[in-house]
Amino acid sequence: MRSPSDHHAYPTHWEADVVLRDGGTAQIRPITTDDAQRLVSFYERVSDESKYYRFFAPYPRLSDRDVHRFTHHDYVDRVGLAAIVGDEFIATVRYDRIDGRGMPAAAPADEAEVAFLVQDAHQGRGVASALLEHIAAVARERGIRRFAAEVLPANNKMIKVFTDAGYTQKRSFEDGVVRLEFDLEPTDRSLAVMRAREQRAEARSVQRLLAPGSVAVIGTSRAPGGVGRTVLRNLLDGGFTGRVHAVNHAFPDDMTRLEPEGVPAHRSLRAIEEPVDLAVVAVPAERVPAVVAECGDHGVQGLVVLSAGYAESGGEGRDRQRDLVRQARSYGMRVIGPNAFGVINTADGVRLNASLSPQLPNPGRLGLFTQSGAIGIALLSGLNRRGAGLASLAGIAGISTFVSAGNRADVSGNDLLQYWYDDPLTDVVLMYLESIGNPRKFTRLARRTAAVKPVVVVKGARHTGSAPTGHAVPTTRIPDATVSDLLRQAGVIRVDTVTELADTGVLLASQPLPAGPRVAILGNSESLGLITYDACLTEELRPLPPRDLTTDATPDDFRRALAEALTDDTCDAVIVTAIPWVGDGSAQALAAAVREAAQTPGPGPAKPVAVVHLEIQELAQALAGTGAEPAPGTRRIPAYPAAERAVRALAEAVRYARWREEAAEPGRVPEYDDIDEAGAAADIQVLLAPADGHGGDGTGDGPGGDVTGGGTVEGTGPGVAVGTGEATSGGAFDGAGPGVELSAADTQRLLARYGVSVLPALPAPDPDAAVRAAERLGFPVALKPTAPHLRHRADLGGVRLELGSETELRRAYAELTDYLGRPEELGLVVQRMAPRGVDTVVRAAIDPAAGAVLSFGLAGAPSELLGDTAHGLVPVTGRDAAELIRSIRTAPLLFGWRGSKPVDTVALEELLLRVSRLVDDHPEMVAVDLEPVVVAQHGLSVLGASARLAPPPPRTDLGPRHMPAY
User: Which residue among 40, 576, 734, 949 sits deepest, i.e. has the most Cβ atoms within 10 Å of its Cβ?
Assistant: First the structure.
């Protein structure tokens, strides 16, 4: 039990697990009074040279006064952090707040002196860099804005830690000491440095798991069968190039080898006299803690835990799973699993099959990650059947590496994205996901990876709204449609089925990216050509008229036709269709002809080729490389048993190629001179102040508040709009949760700070007030209710439009109150008519896991009934805003559908960008709802607005590196 130092509470939220440069892990936490002996032991293991660099003089041991000083902190002006592996300190860092003269100080002094000490055996692992990130975040939290450090000129390693961090800094030299001063505000460069270090460390941690020099299978049974013995057999049959050990505490004392495998047998990991890099754990869950402790003491680098009985089994198992991760990390180990299927690496120098797969897949360019063992088995089996080449030659559907993570308590898809990003043996990433534990990080990593290689994802558990029981992940309110949009924005290719995952992956791994959507179709069946043509239209490709070679076509006819298509500058891709022919003919000959034509270089860029065949399985095998070994460098062609499958895969490649081309020149978040960021911040601070639980004028009793302005009116058709409502449009999420619902006046004031004006609506509690409001606003006006049950319900007849006179207004008032209820029940308001246009809705909301999301759609049925809403992560760029508007299915209504006048989409894009800026600049804006926004031929009118404020959720993506907490 840790004791707090002095009188300040122990800051538990500063604890974190981190991945170090070499792929190992360490825990970072505040130093407490209980750490005195740990500190003394740590200091004794530090070399005299390192002590000299720390204290600028020989300092062989710590005095009692030193130990007290370094373990007693107030966690405000004096803070110490330690990096820990096992139960031992490997490094420490501390800061002391100082004033302008360098003397100890308290707030509001905003500078601190910082100093590090790293045990020599752990120098070069990136420990100091990780500690700097964390101590800087702590300092910022405590109001410190600048660090100062004095370093001896010979201490090049520590100088490099500071200078490489990316902060804005000043360097001076005085009295034989280098003085470094640097601001702690994150910069673009410091974030880039942090993320580059994160990528290298996490990629290295995965590499240690996938390329071990030695493997111990713990839980290998003496009798054939069983999980452990099966994995051992698979390791040997796959040709693993490293050393293999069988471990089981039930082995007889005199047993030294396991037969017939002939591998060394041990009762305990301690009996192995050489290092073990990877341990495959296949023992009952209750025995796993003892095994993990043995592995940690032996220096094992990583664990693959196949054992079940963890979070998938309920609350007790969930606690057991958390304990497993904590224990493994305390020893610096990473964990795949528990309840995992295993890992595979087909590289020639490794040939690792530490899984339950009965055979090592053929090597290839596909990296595969699954959160389900069953799906992993199906994918491996299907890919192997589909295009397995000769043992000496990579097949069209070959695998580079495979990880089936089970409950993914530690290693997740994010870690694999970090590894595959710069893995030279992987060209395409395939992922089956049932939950996304850190959506914000996932989309960031996926975007970066997709910029260099395709990432194809199938998302399971789409409609249940919950993760599988074994996955301990943060909750998210984002609907599946929103997830799809966010993945698309990140360049991820999302498909619906495991079959489509394989179809798309095979095409991307074997074919060049298409330059455009134009598709040539040729084959020996007119009907199959027409089916392919229709499928292309369905996928929004641009097919050329099919070329029918007739059923008499020979392989040479196919070769000539394909060669012509590939040199035709009016097409970007070619689909070859084939049916069984009558008479002489060979699938091998046809495959050779297709490959020869595809191999012949043309005048322009290479074009993808896919084959659709009906009942010619030999053709698919021949195209993939099965059978007689083709010449080195021969291009493999993917074959599909249905036109729809080939076209869908090609369409995904076309969309991905377009995204990648656009991503090469990213858009820009524009600056607007009229934005008052400081004024908005001041308003938000006042509104969130805990005065009476409400903001502003204290009327915050829901959207619209005192109904003196926006938040009360929405459009019901060309030219008008009526009352705000709940943010529940299809595919969106409303950011509902604790916070302050702003009144209409407060909402308008905040929006105005960002150049967004809301058309005012005035309350009309009686007919005379309605007339006065209309005279103030100017006729013609609209009269409408704001009662919650009538918002967005123009179909109930509660809206009166184009009221051009007092007589019309009084008559409408009487009709509404007679028909719908008393004025106080309706909350009637009067609003000036807006120019005619298209009613749209703009929303932004913050999800704790994914961050801020901007949504756009047409108001009413398109978004609410059909879910036709587009979403993007904030901040959006100018290109993102344009894409949001154009990506909804009803977008043609904005661009002059059926002879109507196009509306002002430029003004609409600017509105999206301003709302994005507002939410990005002020994360306290947890929900903003503009509905409707009437977009006219020239300009637009925001007729309704509501907003919610709350203390901002933590931005884990901007803080120091850390692993998910357990």
Answer: 576
